[in-house]
Design goal:
The structure holds 2 protein chains of 2 kinds. Chain A is α/β, with parallel strands linked by helices. Helices cover 28% and strands 27% of the residues of chain A. The longest helix of chain B has 25 residues. Classes of the chains: A alpha/beta, B alpha/beta.
Chain lengths: 639, 301
């Protein structure tokens, strides 16, 4: 019996006291509707008495109307949330279910088993400590079993329940059960699980769900519920070194300065020495402040506020750590990534990474390989599509503090956010920091950028010409360079077509290659700026985010975006290179303006058109602007 | 080995984490206060999250003008006692048109005085994040709700296009005009709420406790006659009965249950021994199948 009815009726105060010691277990169920997953969860809810009379009435009515059990109660109907799904009979998202017994409260992440929903399973697994993997006893280990196991292990789940369901349909045959379990152990040996509990079940008939079944006398293990009530999940977090990611600086008045956050691992006591990972400053814990009074000690999982002995600079995003066991602190690291969006991952494109309270711009610098979630094979690839998993090197603008995810599941985990749509496009787990991040230091030169530009009587800058094919970018850039040259300025032009003959000849025109194309050109232009040169770059550069990337590589006033705003009709009419005609005929794919988008600049420093004025006039206007911006005058740097 | 945190302490810490995260990530957060038991817990958690400072956001009550009188008294007392900045918003257009549950039915009343009114208030004060006390166990449509639930500029929820939410990392990025609804007690059940109220001795509206109250029975539901705006049918006469409320809303739309439970342990005992789920007393769910989901898409919590 899930709840002690007698105690509730006779001694409610005694019952309430006993409830105060209850623990919490979060688990995920993996399997498809066909495996009887909804029936299994429905039955756990049912047997722990958490189905109320009115819900039961609705369930009975629904079972008659749309049930699949011939008028018998269809537990699966308890679970489906959204109306459309009810009609289709499938679950399409993560749903959370709750039930409790006298020993534990349970939070169940219910996720679908279809391949296209890897995203949802990863989401559900992220907060779970145990995975219940359903297997249809008639079918044994299937591709989806492998997929579910891989994803749960990827997210760091260490305990698995192999729920071999529908035993009634194979006459409770022990030999078949043993064969399935042996198969699974062979397959799962490299997945890093600490425990695998295999239980023969019939969710529909109730065998070994709550009470031991008379149909499986050969099985002497626990029932599903009793296993879930007693399985020991990691208390590890408490035994790891102390970490507290600062969420909030609590400053009600000048006399109080506290740092609030949830302790992600370890324990802390007043007097403990802590270090702020980013700044390296140290201090000692003064008090552990809570609404319920100051604590003698706080442990992983508690949300507290710490005050320190010394006034040191700490803000949201800092990690307070045990001073003798610091986390890694790096701006380059290797991570496994799950892609969660229809727009593919583009290496080189700047994304936002949110790791706890730390947020920074970052790029996937290299996708090392993809992992086939069904076979676990490694495959080469340049991008990740929705629901694909890969191992990648990441480089971030700011260094981040973390522990490898496999060492500390409460650290080294992050989400990837698209900077323009704000969508959560991926999730990642850090494998390790990259050595080169800590070992390669910037070489400081005595003669610097300012000195070089000063010698030339100019200020170095990038003039980034963007616009459609045929807009007149190269023509205008050429004229501008001629004028600057005549004025005695030192210039260089990086032309889109020319660069593709050499440095970028290995790149095509897919979105991923376009991003890489721009990244290389941006980095090259940056070197020219460092050399003190006025650098003209003439590229279609259709994506806002890539122009933003190029802009972010140099100082704020060193990037001047020149938008050659010539309408598509005019460009197509000119069709100097005959490319529009080919694109219209379908001979060229991914042609900007035709079947690949051009994202118009919104805040370009200079906008000119060649539709209503000559290229010469446009060039004159640009040079006038450069005078105005102070690029052409000598300036006096700090040398 | 050291003891792990109990289930209520884990839930508490998770909620505090969420509340702090919202306060740190948004410019103008607000805590929606419905005066019910879930709101009382939410308020208590907010005080814990920022102690010794007061919570850095106001409370807002969207008043339909049909709440029980004891709720309003309780609201004003709580705000004053804890020093909260309380905003009360009433949809004046609705009041001018005389919209009410008796004259216009529950659906129209809820739509104008609650859903529309809430949108009005969010627009008026330009709040970019609103805390709500919804729980995933309340109703099937809520089981899939995110903790940070994204809303468009017109406050719509799109169940097919929700941001995946992993670990305890919440995506707080929005554009101007967009907002999020944040649900810090998503993972609590009704039983957790009651146990926590008991453990922490959190004050709740007296209507939750049984007392003799004037009620009439309509379609099998006991409706309390809270003021003289309630039209009585021919032959209908309020009777004094020992009743209490499992959930609180507008008084004409909230059914009472006959009960003798006058203390918290009594209430929890009754809840565990009877078998009727809590939203049954709320009539808006019964209008049509899947009605909650529809209301959520339109901007109701």
């Amino acid at each position: 019996m899930a709840h002690q009815s007698d105690l509730i009726a006779d001694d409610i105060l005694g019952y309430l006291k006993s409830q105060e010691e209850k623990s919490l277990l979060r688990f995920i169920t993996c399997g498809s509707v066909d495996d009887g997953k909804s029936t299994l969860i429905g039955r756990l809810l049912w047997d722990s008495k958490l189905i109320f009379e009115d819900q039961l009435a609705a369930l009975e009515a629904d079972s008659r109307k749309v049930g699949t059990q011939g008028g018998e109660i269809d537990f699966a109907l308890l679970l489906d949330g959204l109306q459309a799904e009810r009609e289709q009979g499938i679950t399409i998202d993560v749903a959370y279910r709750f039930f409790s017994t006298d020993k534990r409260k349970f939070i169940v992440a219910d996720t679908p088993g279809h391949e296209q929903y890897t995203r949802n399973m990863a989401t559900g697994a992220s907060t779970a400590d145990v995975a219940v993997i359903l297997i249809d006893a008639r079918k044994g280990i299937l591709t989806q079993t492998r997929r579910h196991s891989f994803i749960t292990s990827l997210l760091g789940i260490k305990h698995v329940v192999l729920a071999v369901n529908k035993m009634d349909l194979i006459d409770y045959d022990q030999t078949k059960f043993d064969a399935i379990v042996a198969d699974y152990h062979t397959f799962a040996k490299d997945l890093g699980y600490r425990s695998i509990a295999a239980i023969p079940l019939s969710a529909l008939r109730g065998d070994n769900m709550i009470e031991a079944s008379a149909n499986t006398p050969w099985y002497d293990g626990p029932t599903l519920l009793s296993h879930l009530e007693t399985v020991q999940v990691e208390q590890d977090a408490i035994e790891k070194p102390f970490r507290l990611p600062v969420q909030w600086v609590n400053r009600p008045n000048l006399d109080f300065r506290g740092f609030s956050g949830t302790i992600s691992s370890g324990t802390v006591k007043p007097g403990d020495e802590i270090i702020v990972t980013a700044s390296g400053q140290t201090s000692k814990v003064k008090d552990i402040v809570t609404f319920d009074g100051n604590l003698e000690e706080a442990i992983a999982g508690q949300a507290v506020t710490l005050t320190l002995e010394d006034e040191i600079d700490i803000s949201r995003g800092d990690i307070l750590a045990a001073s003798d066991a610091k986390p890694d602190f790096a701006d380059q690291f290797e991570a496994r990534i799950i892609w969660m969006h229809e727009d593919q991952l583009l290496p080189g494109r700047p994304y936002l990474i949110k790791m706890g309270a730390q947020v920074t711009n970052a790029q996937i610098s290299e996708l090392k390989y993809k992992v086939n979630v069904n076979t676990l094979e490694h495959m080469a690839g340049k991008t990740l599509e929705l629901n694909e998993v890969g191992i990648a090197n990441i480089s971030s603008d700011k260094a981040l503090a973390f522990d490898p995810y496999d060492e500390n599941r409460h650290s080294g985990r992050f989400i990837i956010i698209d900077r323009f749509t704000n969508a959560t496009v991926g999730a990642g787990m850090v494998n390790h920091s990259l050595r080169r991040a800590t070992n390669i230091k910037w070489q400081e030169m005595d003669i610097n950028k300012g000195a070089r530009a000063y010698q030339k009587g100019q200020k170095s800058a990038i003039l980034w010409f963007t616009g459609l094919s045929g807009a007149g970018k190269s023509t205008v850039a050429n004229l501008v360079e001629k004028k600057l040259h005549a004025m005695g300025k030192h210039t260089y032009t990086l032309d889109g077509d020319n660069v593709r003959h050499g440095l970028n000849k290995d790149l095509g025109f897919s979105d991923a290659d376009r991003v890489e194309n721009i990244r290389r050109v941006g980095e090259t232009a940056k070197l020219f700026v460092d050399a003190g040169v006025i650098t003209l770059v003439s590229f279609i550069s259709p994506f806002k985010s890539e122009r933003q990337l190029a802009r972010s590589l140099v100082e704020k006033d060193e990037f001047i975006e020149v938008f050659i705003d010539t309408p598509l009709e005019v460009c197509e009419q000119r069709d100097v290179k005959g490319l529009y005609k080919k694109a219209r005929a379908g001979e060229i794919a991914n042609f900007t303006g035709i079947d690949s988008p051009y994202e118009r600049p919104e805040n370009a420093e200079i906008v000119v058109s060649t539709a209503d004025q000559s290229a010469e006039k446009a060039a004159e206007a640009i040079v006038a602007k450069l005078e105005e911006f102070g690029v052409l005058g000598a300036w006096y740097p700090d040398i | 080995m050291q003891p792990n945190l109990t289930h209520l302490r884990q839930l508490e810490a998770e909620s505090i984490h969420i509340i702090r995260e919202v306060a740190a990530s948004f410019e103008r957060p607000v805590m929606l206060y419905s005066i019910g038991k879930d709101s009382s817990v939410l308020l208590h958690l907010a005080r814990k999250a920022f102690y010794p400072a007061p919570p850095p956001f106001p409370l807002m009550h969207v008043d339909t003008t049909w709440k029980f009188r004891e709720m309003i008294e309780f609201r004003d007392k709580v705000a004053a006692e804890y020093g909260f900045d309380l905003i009360v918003h009433i949809n004046q257009d609705g009041v001018d048109q005389g919209i009410g549950p008796f004259s216009h039915g529950s659906s129209m009343h809820t739509d104008v005085m609650k859903t529309e009114s809430l949108k009005q208030a969010l627009n008026k004060y330009k709040f970019d994040a609103a805390f709500g006390g919804a729980r995933r166990d309340e109703e099937k449509a809520r089981a899939k709700e995110r903790v940070f639930s994204f809303r468009t500029e017109t406050h719509r929820w799109d169940p097919k296009n929700q941001r995946p939410e992993l670990w305890d990392i919440y995506n707080a990025r929005i554009n101007k005009g967009e907002s999020i609804r944040a649900f810090p007690i998503s993972n609590w059940t009704e039983l957790d709420i009651w146990q926590y109220i008991y453990l922490e001795q959190i004050p709740i509206v007296p209507l939750y406790y049984s007392a003799k109250r004037p009620v009439v029975e309509r379609d099998g539901t006991l409706i309390m006659v809270d003021d003289d705006r309630m039209p009585l049918n021919p032959g209908e006469k309020p009777e004094m009965k020992s009743v209490r409320f499992r959930t609180l809303g507008c008084y004409p739309l909230t059914g009472a249950v006959e009960s003798e439970a006058a203390t918290l342990p009594d209430i929890i005992q009754e809840m565990l021994l009877t078998r009727s789920s809590e939203r049954q007393g709320r009539m808006i769910d019964h209008d049509q199948a899947g009605s909650m989901e529809k209301k959520k898409q339109e901007g109701y919590f």
